[in-house]
Amino acid sequence: MLLSFINMLCISSGCSDVVTKRWRVRKKCFLVSLRETNNYYRHLSGQWRGIKIVCREGVVMKISRNILFGMFVVLFFGMAFHLSAAEALDFKDRVVADPRTRQYVMPSRVVWTSSADTVKNADVLLQRRSGQATLDASNPCILDNKTGPAAILLDFGRELHGGIQVMAWKTGGNKPVKLRVRFGESVSEAMSDIGTKNAVNDHAIRDQVCLVPWLGTHEIGNTGFRFVRIDLVDDNSMIQLKSVRATFLFRDIEYKGSFKCNDERLNRIWQTGAYTVHLNMQDYLWDGIKRDRLVWIGDMHPETMTIYSVFGCHDIIPASLDLVRDETPLPKWMNGISSYSMWWILIHHSWYMQKGDVEYLKKQQTYLVGLLEQLIKHIDQENKETLTGFRFMDWPSASNKEAVHAGLQSLMIFTMVAGGDLCSILGDEATMKKCDEAAERLRKHIPEHGNSKQAAALMSLAGLGNPVKFNSEIMAVDGPKRMSTFYGYYVLQARALSGDYQGCLDVIRQYWGAMLDVGATTFWEDFNLDWTINAGRIDEIVPEGKKDIHGDYGDHCYKGFRHSLCHGWASGPTAWLSEHVLGVKPLKPGCKVVRIVPHLGDLQWVEGTYPVPQGVIKVRHEKKPDGTIESTIDAPKDIVIIRK
Question: pTM score, two decimals?
């Protein structure tokens, strides 16, 4: 390597054949490893001045010791980098880029410690420190269980997706120590044992024992959490902690959409719904970051409507649609649920309205037409849907057969209308005609709603009844009671169709706002206002005599601590506020024509932005003393704005 190095220098000096010709090095010079060269350089620094190269042509080149060593180091690492790059070429076709960003988040507070004797200097973990191991154990947090079990509970301030990084200084005997790490979306979940109140490790491990090295770091976890409890496991063990910080894994994308009004509660609700969906934008669009980290197509619909309002046409939507399509060959139903295959078509329709991408739609044609024909076969002679598979709307309505049938009948109408539109765009008039005829047939059967708000909402939106009557007799009764976080979005849409915008604002404040009142930073898989009666907050240890709102409630698949407190399908108010209060709704594919009609209810003003492929629409509406609305709209020049 030294010969090559000298040759490189000589080429630049006119001695191109120095290696093959006679050359001599005066003074002391050794061809050794980098480390040996460095040591020898230090040892002989007072004697060695460099090298002199004499070529046959008489050209002399002198190189000082400092330049020589510096260039030697550069060459050494340059060759190492070159080798690494060359090696990377061997597996470049097997590399998949992670679309997410990784950041570190420090804890915001210490919620609890086992005792002052077993946990010392806990607050130091709240300081901003690096996760790099150092020899100087300066001001550590010490867990020592010689006098009893040592444990600490940390709060990271808001729901996150990822894990934690533990950086340790000294340990007992300078050996690895066992730590038990429990993640929780609530304080009570982080303090729970597996099996207690349905605490589980489903989909993501939230309770585990791991080995942490002395003078090193260890990373634990891949789940959704806000709280972390750390226990020192072995008797008579000790660990000095430099830092415990969250490894936050998320897509670093811009919030192009915004919403702000004179009601701070509504502002928080809009932002919380946006953040809930943002956390679920991982490899694909999930519905939950702790449990059910899966692409459930039906759950995706409210999420996609929120994404349009906040992030615009993000590629995670078609990627998730294609994933489930490719893994669900016909005649299978997506996720085993017939309604979810219909939601796949409905999401494609909304995507086309937002994006206007005909080429992408053409790629769906074969599957789309096959699915539409399959659905049409499930209409009987009495014009009723006869769908197979898991017949599902949402969990609270699952046991109400009348409601499920009414909901599926309505979804079939939505799907035939949307499918007909898409086939028209694709130039498939034959399938378009089949869809139109199927929709007309389905409208001839008026099912019973089973006194279900979910069913009544879908029937209203499908034109199977009077929206005003449905609202007054079913949806507006008992305010937000008998709703779900998933289908709450469609209840809001149906109530808006009836003109009850004020009722919608009241429900949003009461229902979604109540989750914020008990400490939520994301919206939940399900929620019932009755759960708040005599309940503690999720961000504190449940006081004596109070109910544990996370561990004591839930139903169906979300009982107790299995309940997800960050579920994207619960984000409906974000999309609804942007569409109906800010008033922005695309009417033509690619958002080329957009209607802007605000409904302020009891609000005095609202302002915000809505992302479209051409840019961002900026809007402000202000209520005047006479009740009229003055609007200021700034939209990209290629968009037609309709204001009625």
Answer: 0.86
